[in-house]
Amino acid sequence: MNLPGWATAPGGKCPTPVRPSSACQAQITPVAAIRGELAAGIADPRFTPGAVDPRMTQGNIHSTICVAGYTATVRPPSSYTDSLKVRQIGEYGYADTNPADYEEDHLIPLELGGHPTDPKNLWPEPLEGDGGAKQKDQVENWAHDEVCAGRMALVDAQRAIATHWLALCAQ
User: Fold this and answer.
1) How big is the chain by its Cα radius of gyration, in Å?
2) CA distances, 79 to each of 84, 100, 146, 153, 161 (Å)
3) Helices 133-148 and 154-164, axial angle in degrees (round to 10)
4) Structure pTM?
5) Which of 80, 87, 93, 108 is most open to solvent, judged by the fewest CB atoms within 10 Å of its CB?
6) CA distance 29 to 25
7) How far apart are alpha carbons 45 and 80 in whole angstroms?
8) Which DSSP helix (H) or strand (E) runs through 123?
9) Residue 104: CB partners within 8 Å, gap ≥ 6?
């Protein structure tokens, strides 16, 4: 993982903060300027609590999410996510309203059985900065590998990433 300020956890692939978590949180730009109590890179659960695809179960992961190319079969079209992103940037109250600065992200990623189109699972995630989309993508990939290898239950990965993805690897 080549993420600035992050390192690979011992014995794993998951990027974790090099700094202790409290120091790391202090370095993350607070969303206070945007919305209040949440750290940057964390979806506001009032708007985006996460939603799972009810078709995904632990029993079918090897014929769904663990199959290469699966996410392309369920990813919603950009015509849907682009308009949702603009609306949600307003709902989140972001000071930066340029849609190009955000990725309309699945809180529970498609590769972990997140619901593809439910607005409760989609949010405008900042592309840059500590806790941004690029770092979350790395954590998602690691969690997907863990689930598909049988080292983590699907429901545990979904819950952890929806609750506080920055802390997922530190558990």
Assistant:
1) 16
2) 9, 14, 32, 33, 26
3) 160
4) 0.77
5) 87
6) 8
7) 21
8) strand 122-126
9) 81, 82, 84, 85, 88, 122, 123, 124, 125
How do the pLDDT tens digits run along the chain, 171 residues long?
Answer: 233 333 444 444 455 433 323 322 323 333 333 333 455 678 889 999 999 999 999 999 999 999 999 999 999 999 999 999 999 999 999 899 999 999 999 999 999 999 999 999 999 988 876 667 778 888 899 999 999 999 999 999 999 999 888 777 555
The structure tokens listed for 112 are 């972990």
- Tokens 């809180």 correspond to 107
Measure the CA–CA gap between 57 and 35, rounded to whole angstroms. 34
The answer to whether 16 touches 9, Cβ cutoff 8 Å, is yes
Tell which residue, 93, 109, 97, has the closest CA to residue 143. Answer: 109
